[in-house]
Design brief:
Helix content: 40-55%
Shape: globular
Number of strands: 7
Length: about 300
């Protein structure tokens, strides 16, 4: 028999989901949203919250690993590197990077205290606490010295930052000359030519931006994204859309894998199942997904 405290927690959680999913002005901040989602990841073996990179993946776990590996490879992560991972979730990518690329140290920053606590526990259990240092902290006010890291990475979280440009400036500040920034990020699509397609895009973007608290200041296309990286001082800027290897295959996978959806909260399962009955072209019409990379220029000889 459940205790009164357990029943109260479940009711509060249910009311929280109802407010988040049904109230367009749900009044939550990013930390409250991720506290609500907790560790109910649709992955089978890990606790990833990213959408995955599906070019050669067969399962969600494989796709989430593949996205993390793509970010690390684009960053040219390797032994001896000091890596800063902002918005690390439950640290699955950090543990993967530590074992695969063996950087000297990975520092993580995350504003959600519940994720920091759980991630630290998981890292310690994996025997990687000496290599991975997870901290409560903001990507827009980094508690790091200037020129102290070789890589800054942000895996599917920078759209939350208020603002993304402040994050770019902070990343530039903490990177050493020659250091690299790599971001997997969600943006609005460039406007379509036809009016009805533009309306669908706006609807899709508003749904995502409202539920996941994307600041209006971050609502710009990949071309503007590249311009804003360059404006901070970054060189070798590249912003490529990988949306075709993210959204449609994820939609197909979840539509056929009931176990993945079943791992979500019951109310979120309902919303996801409704979306899975729709054409993915409509569901994701307003959403771009980019892999962005840039380098802090080396000091003059």
């Amino acid at each position: 028999m459940q205790s009164t405290d357990a029943i109260t927690r479940r009711w509060r959680e249910t009311l929280g989901y109802l407010n988040w999913l049904l109230n367009p002005r749900h009044g939550r901040d990013v930390t409250q949203v991720y506290d609500l989602l907790a560790d109910r990841s649709p992955t089978e073996q890990r606790l990833y919250l990213n959408l995955g990179y599906w070019r050669s993946a067969a399962t969600l776990d494989e796709a989430c690993d593949a996205l993390a590996l793509l970010v690390a490879e684009t960053a040219q992560m390797g032994p001896g590197d000091e890596v800063l991972d902002v918005g690390f979730g439950f640290a699955d990518q950090d543990m993967l990077w530590a074992r695969t690329f063996r950087p000297r140290q990975i520092i993580g920053l995350n504003v959600t205290a519940s994720q920091v606590e759980r991630a630290r526990q998981r890292v310690a259990e994996a025997g990687l606490a000496g290599q991975i240092d997870l901290r409560l902290g903001s990507a827009t006010q980094m508690p790091l010295d200037a020129g102290s890291v070789d890589k800054v990475v942000a895996l599917e979280c920078a759209f939350h930052f208020d603002t993304r440009e402040r994050f770019f400036a902070e990343a530039f500040r903490v990177l050493r000359p020659g250091g690299r920034l790599v971001v997997a990020d969600i943006l609005p699509m460039p406007p379509a030519a036809r009016r009805h397609e533009r309306l669908a895009q706006r609807w899709g973007w508003r749904q995502a931006a409202g539920k996941f608290l994307i600041p209006e200041a971050n609502a710009y296309t990949r071309e503007v994204y590249a311009e804003r990286l360059a404006a901070v001082g970054f060189a070798e800027v590249a912003v490529a859309s990988i949306r075709d290897d993210v959204y449609p295959p994820l939609h197909r996978y979840l539509a056929r894998d009931r176990a993945a959806v079943a791992r979500l909260h019951s109310l979120l399962r309902v919303a996801v199942r409704i979306a899975l009955r729709l054409d993915p072209g409509l569901v994701f019409s307003g959403l771009d997904y980019v892999l962005a990379s840039a380098e802090r220029p080396r000091a003059p000889a």
